[in-house]
Design brief:
This protein is mainly β and about 325 residues long. The chain folds into two domains: about 5-45 and about 280-305 and about 315-320, no CATH class; about 60-245, Jelly Rolls. The chain has four helices and 25 strands. It has helices at about 15-25, 245, 260-270, 295-305; strands at about 5-10, 60, 65, 70-75, 80-85, 90, 95-100, 115-120, 125-130, 135, 140-145, 155-165, 175-180, 180-185, 190-195, 200-210, 210-215, 220, 225-230, 235-240, 255-260, 275-280, 285-290, 310-315, 320. The strands form three sheets. The chain has a 19-stranded mixed sheet that branches. Strands 1-23-21 form a three-stranded mixed sheet. InterPro entries: FecR, FecR_C, Ferrdict_sens_TM. This is DUF4974 domain-containing protein. Keywords: Membrane, Transmembrane, Transmembrane helix.
Amino acid sequence: MEKQHNVIPFYKTRAFIYLTAACIALMVAGLATLFYNYPGVKFKNFTVELQEEDIAPGGNKATLTLADGKVITLNEAADGELVNESGIVIRKTGNGQVVYEVTGNNGSQKRPVYNTISTPKGGTYQIVLPDGTRVWLNAASTLKFPSTFANLMNRKVELSGEAYFEAAKDKDHPFIVKSHDQEVKVLGTHFNISSYTDETQTKTTLLEGKIEVVSGGKTALLKPGQQSTVQATRAINLANADVEAEMAWKNGLFIFDDEPLESIMRKISRWYDVEVVYQDIDKNRLFGGSVSRFDHVSKVLRQLELTGRVHFKIEEGKIIITK
């Protein structure tokens, strides 16, 4: 049976902007907001009055757990040196990063000592690992990594959630990211991994360089602009990626491209740390659109609501969705 694409787009494609610019110029007079119900059409920006009960967007929030069990709440810690021991200095910068610096000889360590950085729902954070690899963590994500990569054959880290990596080049020590159903091996490259446990698949998107995805005994090589997906069967599927959409979270946006309502609301729930309640609504209805992640949730929901196909209300910190 052919799947019905009940697409409710709410944004403009670049091509459509040029084709309809003249018509829009005539129609917008006297209208506060202009919407279309055709595939690939985007919304215009508009002003939304905040609701009395509203939810602010997420921000820089994370905890750093050291090998001895000490937990540092990074968003509450003062800028500057956080830890200085065993040849490792951990600093918090003024622009909201945590940076690892190797300052001494770690040869005495017989086995790796692991640290963990975790973002809550509504949190994001940046970290520079001991080898210089830069990592951006999305909301509700965790990265486990050695406090130093000295004396290790490879630079292996473990991810749950979503992160963008700019891996430092070191041809003799591959950088490996392990998630719950795959491993990604690189020498030095830029890539994004989305591996949330409440999603049905792990997505790996390559922006620059070359990576190898390993899952269930199978291997796939990705080229820039490609994306692999791994599902429960652990089969690896390759396709061309919508890089702009995949990297939207890092660039301060939500971008949805014919995406089911339930998937959209999982992203909104993670970022705004809010519970979602569905009441007699088709969770598989498809939407497309873009909106800033820095807006209050009421504006994000209002832009979806103006399609006329879904309605929201915020009560006691919950988003309730109806027809």
